[in-house]
Amino acid sequence: MRKNTLRLTAAVFALLFACLSLCSCDKSISARYDKYDREGERYDLDLTEYVAIPEYKGIEIPDLIYEPTEKEIADTRIKKQVYFSDEYIVEDGVIEKYDLVDCDFVTKVEGMEYRSMCSASNSALRSMLIGIEEFDIPEIDAQMLGMKPGETATIEFTFPIPYYRAPMLSGLKGEFTVTIDQIRRQNLAEYTDEFVNQFYGATDTAAYDSTIEAQLKSDYSKYMENYEIDMLWEYIMDNTKLAKMPSKEYNEIFDRALDSYTAEADEAGMYLDDYAVEKLGYEDPDVFYADVADAVQATCKEEMILYTIARCEGMTISVSEYEEALLQAAADLESQDIELCEQYVTKQYGTLSNFKQAVLFNKVFTFLGDNASKIAVEDYYANKEAGKYKNVEVEISNKLSTVEIIIIAGAGVAVILLVVVILLAVKAVKEKKNADVRAAERAALEEKRRLRREQKAAKKKHYGKKAEEAEEE
């Protein structure tokens, strides 16, 4: 009986262990995350229950390498000639090739204003040299030819693939709405050895063409400087599922955002609701607060993703990494004094914790770039067109929380104890029954013995009496 009890108890424990193991089993990202000690950090949570991120190593991005074309070099020559050419205002005429046009314009990408291509936000682009495709978009120059001062046109176009000036816009639809102010026609200076020597210090045109080529490479290198991180981050954000928001961190970010807007409103001598309507352009303050909430949620989501990756990879910031980043951030001070530099970055970031978080996040971005998979440009955009980089399958962690595991384990132990108690009770009942049987058997045996003793005594008495009678006779 004892052996059976032990076997059953062992079986129940084995079943409980198997259940808990199954419940805690999860995808590789979750398994990697669990190894990290996050105690004391922001988002001190199991973030795999809040966001489900795609595999972040080996993400495909296009291997963009810019080489200036002959046309781009020739167009840049025209720019250089215009700087030192005579011009005159076209009073009655239309735009022709190589005219310098003063204009106002607004660009929208997929329906959203793109401020980098809006004259109001970039006065340096208010004058356009037509025919050299300043924005690298042929449709704009082509359709502006023939326009007159005072005219307005909306030009629909598609960003080239790839669009080296802003790779994230490659293949997207755009609208360019332009209003012509005036046309300045150029009497182009001749592009000769004498010209480049006089105005640009080059020995001859061939030498200056090499300078132009090098400058174009440098300019476009800056345009593409962050394209890898931008594309990687777009992929991760697009394919991350958000399960829920951590209330503590969400409220902290929301409060900081409102405090910032409130400070702006106070400086303008206005209530925040009025400031949102009169200064920020909202028709209804409720829409403003909804936009703030959306922005805060996006920020919270981004931070959770970055912390998740950092923890999966066991990333921390060493003392040397921190001090190097600190000295770089406070380079304007030209000081090696750590305490002084910390005071400087505290003013920039609000707190040292925010600065350290930024350093950690930069380390994550560097890691993502180092682990990206660069493929041929045509292959990447073919895959993108086919939808390969959208709706990647991810799952929210189904691991049980510590509390849930404790509850289940406790319930399992209770079940085991109940089974043991029942087994012991059954054993006790059986043993009592056996004891009763044995007691009854002993009583019956004793009764038989008693009867035998009485019979023996009766016989002895009977035969003893007969012996006495015989003796008397």
List the topology elements.
Elements (H helix, E strand, L loop, with lengths): L1 H23 L3 H6 L17 E2 L7 E3 L7 H14 L2 E4 L10 E10 L2 E2 L13 E3 L8 H7 L7 E7 L14 E15 L5 H8 L4 H19 L3 H12 L2 E2 L4 H21 L4 H7 L6 H28 L6 H11 L8 H12 L2 H19 L2 E3 L1 H9 L16 H71 L1
Parallel strand pairs: 2-10
Antiparallel strand pairs: 1-9, 3-8, 4-5, 4-6, 4-8, 7-8
Helix pairs in contact: 1-15, 3-6, 7-13, 8-9, 8-10, 10-13, 11-12
Task: Give a brief outline of the structure.
The chain is an alpha+beta fold. Helices cover 56% and strands 11% of the residues. Strands 3, 4, 5, 6, 7 and 8 form a six-stranded antiparallel sheet that branches. A two-stranded antiparallel sheet has the order 1-9.
Number of strands: 10
Question: Residue ranges: pLDDT <50 for 5 or more in a row?
Answer: 22-27
Nearest-integer average pLDDT: 86
Q: Shape from CA axes?
A: elongated
Distance between the termini: 71 Å
**Elements, N to C (H/E):** HHEEHEEEEHEEHHHEHHHHHHEHH
Radius of gyration: 43 Å
Instruction: Indicate the structural class.
Output: alpha+beta
Helical residue percent band: 55-70%
Portion in strands? 5-15%
Number of helices: 15
Summarize the main sheet. Answer: 6 strands, antiparallel
What does this entry look like structurally?
The structure is a single chain. By secondary structure, the chain is an alpha+beta fold. Helices cover 56% and strands 11% of the residues. It is built from 15 helices and ten strands. Strands 3, 4, 5, 6, 7 and 8 form a six-stranded antiparallel β-sheet that branches. Strands 1-9 form a two-stranded antiparallel ribbon. A two-stranded parallel sheet has the order 2-10. It is elongated and about 165 Å long. The relative contact order is 0.13. About 1% of the residues have low confidence.
